[in-house]
Amino acid sequence: MNPSSLPIPFHGGPRRATSGVIERVIANVPVPRTCATADPAPAAHRIARDAARNAALLSASFALPPGPLGMLTVLPDLYLIWKIQRQMVADIFGLYGRAAELTGTHMLYCLFRHMASHVLRDVVVRAGQRAVVRQMSSSALTSALGSLGATVAQRVAGTSASRWVPLAGAAAVGAYAYWDTLQVAKTALRLLDTTPRATVTYAASKNASMRGT
Question: Where do the domains of the chain lie?
Answer without folding.
Answer: 41-210
